[in-house]
Amino acid sequence: MEEKDNKGIDVNVIEKHFREILDKGLKIDIKDPNFIETPKRVARAYKEIFAGLNHTEEEIKNIFKKCFPTNYKGIVFEKKITVFSMCPHHFLPIRYDVSVGYIPDGCGLGLSKLVRIIELLAKRPELQETFTQEIVELIEKHMHTLGAICMVKGEHYCMQMRGVKQKDVSTITSAANGVFLNKPEMELKFYESIRSS
Ligand SMILES: [Zn+2]
What we know:
Layout: H1 11-25, H2 38-49, H3 57-64, E1 67-69, E2 76-86, E3 93-104, E4 107-109, H4 111-122, H5 128-142, E5 145-156, H6 157-160, E6 171-178, H7 179-182, H8 184-196
Antiparallel strand pairs: 1-4, 2-3, 3-5, 5-6
The structure holds zinc ion.
């Protein structure tokens, strides 16, 4: 039976080919009770892990839809939002700690909404650099702000488990727009808040 979701992720195809990876690629006895259901489990896990693939503009718009009027002119700051992603080069996990700040221009966003956007973006195999840039671009596009800034710390398991095997290395990326680009003191304020809180 065909099991597809509305995003076109085809768990049957994933299951079929993962069974082949185990069986013919890794020569694992797939009749072993530990492995017999594994291809199905992997396919279901992929469906969840990659749920942000092919997201629609509509979904993004809906998350940003509700705006709360405010005169606040300081930085709204959300620190260390933890999300998981997969690297596009090795298909191995990445743990991200994302800190975001923005200055509302008349309206603010519900606190959980930024988390939802970041979670959606993370559920795709994408470069950390691109992921970071997209966060501030989406805030700029869908909200009225004086500027947005974002810093992402990534722990890439493809660097920890294989290759250079660096266990404690993390990759830091950042992106900014509006006042955070034009006024270095605002950018500084953001990084100070990350350090001090
Ligand atoms: Zn990688």
